[in-house]
């Protein structure tokens, strides 16, 4: 006879989740979330705990002695066990709860045999109710939800069991304590979850900002490498053509020189092929290379004119004789001026701007200075298109050429960008 096995409920079903929750209650009640870690804030929890203990200890002892007729020594021991652990709750609330919980149950058993003339409440006394609620706040700010559920269930079970032995004429407080403890646990755990979420969000934003800055830097370096490829490839192509055409342009060349020119042309072709393979890695995102020649200082005038058309009064002071400017420096100077003018249009519309380019003592200086903005930033930014990476791209281009960059606000509210680029390098001298 074959019996059909009963299908197991899905792991994500409500009964399965409930069993998983209750399965770990025992372990949660004996495993603190973070032993030794203090509650939020530093001094305030200790002050509050000391205040509660100092107020509840004498009131508990007096109540037990005067109203319930408990022996003074026993009342002092119970009051100490119920109030003093609140100091421990600042750093170890779960351990403090165990002490208070056991003391409260023992205190209820002591009250069961008392015959005080003014006894009114069972099984918890009013001072015990206040101290227990304060302990719930400490637990909710620190322990896991599973531990909080176990604490609340233990409180309810103990109250209902003791309710079965309630002496006649006493008012029960176990339902009031059960409701108050549940509300406080829910409220404080929600506050803690919100604080933790905000902290994790702040950490994630910090990590995202660092990753964004790193990605921006890498993108700008890749862009610079792609642009410099065109510059270097042009020179390599010229070397190849000159080496290949040398035997035809100079018929009287000896055979050794012809072979040397052939070797130079071959090496130049191989270098150009390697550079193109490297560029294909930098363009792995599928972007196509620019077909137009790379711009230089001869197009700075067009940048200034475009800035003026965007509504920014700008003037250009371009030295008549800049000398022989290397292509890498020429391209970097143009990009720096382009990004600086784009930033003026974005962040300081209406500010008068001056662009100066001059060569002196082997250095090319590009200076872009703007005054305070005369208009509010428009909702749609127009004007000179930049690379999109601002000062990061400027610094990388200056570092590439071995120059220096000085940027910063001016006393009158404007901004200054000054780049010094070398016109000669040790390799070209």
UniProtKB/TrEMBL annotation:
Per the record, a Pfam family? HisKA_3
Task: Please list every transmembrane segment annotated in the UniProt record, as residue ranges.
Answer: 43-65, 96-114, 121-141, 147-165, 172-191
> Which reactions appear under catalytic activity for this entry?
ATP + protein L-histidine = ADP + protein N-phospho-L-histidine
Top-level taxon: Bacteria
CDD domains noted in UniProt = HATPase_UhpB-NarQ-NarX-like
| Molecular function via GO | ATP binding; phosphorelay sensor kinase activity; protein dimerization activity
Could you list this entry's UniProt keywords, alphabetically sorted.
Answer: ATP-binding, Coiled coil, Kinase, Membrane, Nucleotide-binding, Phosphoprotein, Transferase, Transmembrane, Transmembrane helix, Two-component regulatory system
Cellular component, GO annotation: membrane
Signal transduction histidine kinase subgroup 3 dimerisation and phosphoacceptor domain residues are 220-285
Domain named Histidine kinase/HSP90-like ATPase: which ranges?
332-424
The family database entries (InterPro entries) matched by this protein are listed as: HATPase_C_sf, HATPase_dom, Sensor_HK_TwoCompSys, Sig_transdc_His_kin_sub3_dim/P
Tell me which stretches of the chain form a coiled coil: 200-227
Q: What is its EC number?
A: 2.7.13.3
Q: Quote the PANTHER family the UniProt record gives.
A: NITRATE/NITRITE SENSOR PROTEIN NARX-RELATED, NITRATE_NITRITE SENSOR PROTEIN NARQ
- Protein name, please? histidine kinase
Which species? Streptomyces vietnamensis
């Amino acid at each position: 006879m074959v019996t059909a096995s009963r299908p197991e409920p899905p792991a994500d079903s409500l009964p399965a989740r409930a069993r998983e929750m209750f399965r770990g209650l025992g372990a949660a009640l004996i495993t603190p979330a973070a032993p030794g870690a203090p509650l939020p804030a530093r001094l305030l929890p200790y002050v509050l705990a000391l205040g509660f203990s100092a107020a509840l200890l004498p009131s508990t002892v007096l109540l037990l002695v005067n109203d319930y007729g408990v022996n003074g020594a026993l009342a002092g021991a119970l009051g100490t066990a119920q109030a003093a652990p609140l100091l421990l709750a600042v750093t170890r609330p779960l351990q403090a709860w165990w002490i208070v919980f056991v003391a409260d149950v023992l205190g209820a058993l002591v009250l069961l045999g008392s015959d005080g003339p003014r006894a009114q409440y069972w099984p918890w006394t009013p001072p015990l109710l206040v101290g227990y609620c304060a302990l719930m706040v400490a637990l909710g700010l620190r322990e896991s939800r599973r531990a909080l559920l176990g604490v609340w269930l233990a409180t309810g079970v103990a109250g209902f069991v003791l309710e079965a032995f309630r002496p006649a004429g006493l008012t029960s407080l176990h339902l009031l304590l059960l409701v108050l403890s549940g509300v406080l646990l829910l409220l404080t755990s929600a506050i803690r979850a919100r604080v933790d979420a905000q902290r994790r969000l702040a950490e994630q934003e910090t990590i995202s900002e660092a990753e964004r800055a790193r990605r921006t830097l890498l993108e700008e370096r890749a862009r610079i490498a792609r642009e410099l490829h065109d510059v270097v490839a042009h020179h390599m192509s010229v070397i190849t053509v000159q080496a290949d055409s040398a035997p035809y342009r100079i018929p009287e060349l000896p055979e050794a020189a012809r072979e040397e020119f052939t070797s130079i042309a071959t090496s130049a072709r191989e270098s150009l092929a390697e550079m193109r393979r490297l560029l294909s890695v930098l363009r792995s995102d599928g972007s196509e290379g620019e077909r137009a020649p790379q711009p230089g200082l001869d197009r700075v005038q067009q940048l200034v004119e475009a800035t003026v058309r965007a509504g920014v009064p700008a003037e250009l002071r371009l030295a008549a004789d800049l000398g022989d400017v290397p292509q890498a420096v020429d391209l970097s100077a143009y990009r720096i001026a382009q990004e600086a003018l784009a930033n003026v249009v974005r962040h300081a519309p209406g500010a008068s701007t001056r662009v100066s380019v001059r060569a002196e003592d082997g250095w090319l200086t590009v200076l872009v200075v703007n005054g305070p903005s005369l208009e509010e930033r428009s909702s749609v930014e127009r004007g000179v298109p930049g690379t999109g990476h601002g000062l990061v791209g400027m610094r990388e281009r200056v570092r590439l050429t071995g120059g220096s960059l000085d940027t910063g606000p001016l006393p009158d509210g404007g901004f200054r960008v000054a780049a010094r680029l070398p016109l000669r390098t040790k390799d070209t001298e």
